[in-house]
Design goal:
heterodimer; A: mainly alpha; 3 helices; B: mainly alpha; two-stranded antiparallel sheet; 9 helices; about 0% strand; globular
Chain lengths: ~110, ~250
């Protein structure tokens, strides 16, 4: 059981990738990508967890308490911000693709065909 | 590549990736058995050396402040990218304001929802400000509080009054807020370079831990980031909404 968070992260990554590969809708492709990215949160938080560790906020607990790693939490914060902006950027591309081709099916994007 | 070809490729590559990841996991420390030294060190030194009780914020705005600078400019660049992608194209023109759009640009905003969102606006703005300024003390900081602040004007949209939202938060103001936030953070770093000798190094008195004005430059950094995040997300949302509500295309497809 001690590897369960990592297994779930791997599962999320694969499910997200399957979503990207099988997608017939560009918005679904973008959402699948956010699922892929959410797997990184699990890996990071899983790596930094200590059994019985408290959240790294020492405002109301003694500073000698056992705490989880705050470094990975900062990385997750960065990750979330990047995910939000990248999603916005990709959705803007979808809007333009819809204007150009009148469709958000990847197969209808003529310029992307060989 | 056709969808079928892609799926066939994934049928081979997907399980392969799964196997590689399982092998990789085998070498990782078991969940709950943390072996990092850096995190343990941070847990010990943050309060005595930085006077911040939220270790995550202390890392974000002091120890890893330079990384946050990069993160801020990724945010800035992607918002600029969204604005650039959703610019007015050759075949498009600004739609004239249609009657009726003023009051209910989004059908379905009931009277109850409108009243509720009216109450929400001051609450969201107060909560956002609280989260931004208390970043060094309790969970929060510029990124988290900025999103809550950005949700304030968005509540007006929820009430179906997009134009009222645009009046309260016009685009020039949002862009200015974003730019001032991004530039402010970089300039605080320059102040550190001049006064303390190192870029982004703390140069303010640390104060008493767990007081509002403590932890040196962290509250100021937090406010700068909060300004940028608020502006950035509102710019993104208005860009998308403008596409839906205003952009009309001259006849003909493509």
């Amino acid at each position: 059981m001690s590897f369960l968070p990592y297994v779930i992260a791997a599962w999320l990554l694969l499910v997200g990738l399957y979503g990207v590969v099988s997608s017939t809708n560009l918005i679904r492709t973008v959402l699948s990508l956010t699922i892929v990215q959410s797997s990184t949160y699990l890996v990071l938080l899983g790596v930094g967890y200590r059994t019985g560790g408290k959240a790294p906020i020492v405002a109301d607990i003694p500073t000698s308490s056992k705490l989880v790693d705050p470094v990975v939490q900062v990385l997750v914060l960065t990750d979330v911000v990047i995910e939000a902006t990248v999603t916005a950027l990709l959705l803007a591309l979808v809007v333009q693709a819809h204007k150009r081709f009148g469709s958000i099916r990847p197969a209808d994007l003529r310029a992307l065909r060989d | 590549m056709s969808r079928r070809a892609r799926l066939a490729m994934f049928a081979i590559a997907g399980p392969g990736l799964a196997v590689v990841m399982l092998i990789g996991m085998h070498g990782m420390p078991a969940f709950g058995h943390y072996h990092g030294v850096y995190g343990l060190l941070i847990d010990k030194i943050e309060v005595p050396e930085r006077h911040a009780t939220d270790l995550v914020t202390a890392l974000n705005f002091d120890i890893r402040a330079f990384d946050t600078l990069g993160e801020e400019f990724i945010l800035f660049a992607s918002v600029a990218g969204v604005a650039l992608l959703l610019r007015k194209l050759r075949h498009e023109r600004q739609a004239r304001r249609r009657r009726g759009i003023e009051d209910h640009s989004f059908a379905g905003a009931s009277a109850g929802l409108q009243v509720a969102s009216l109450y929400l606006i001051p609450l969201l703005i107060a909560l956002g400000c609280y989260i931004v300024v208390h970043g060094a003390l309790t969970p929060g900081g510029g990124f988290q509080g900025g999103i809550v602040l950005a949700a304030g004007p968005l509540a007006i949209l929820l009430a179906g009054r997009y134009f009222a939202m645009k009046r309260l938060a016009p685009e020039w103001m949002l862009e200015a807020s974003e730019a001032i936030g991004a530039a402010g953070y970089a300039l605080i770093g320059v102040a550190g370079l001049i006064i303390a000798g190192v870029y982004l190094k703390n140069f303010l008195p640390l104060g008493t831990p767990a007081m509002l004005l403590s932890a040196g430059m962290m509250p100021i950094n937090s406010v700068a980031v909060g300004l940028e995040v608020t502006g950035a997300f509102l710019v993104v949302w208005t860009e998308f909404l403008d596409q839906e509500l205003f952009v009309e295309r001259d006849g003909g497809d493509n």
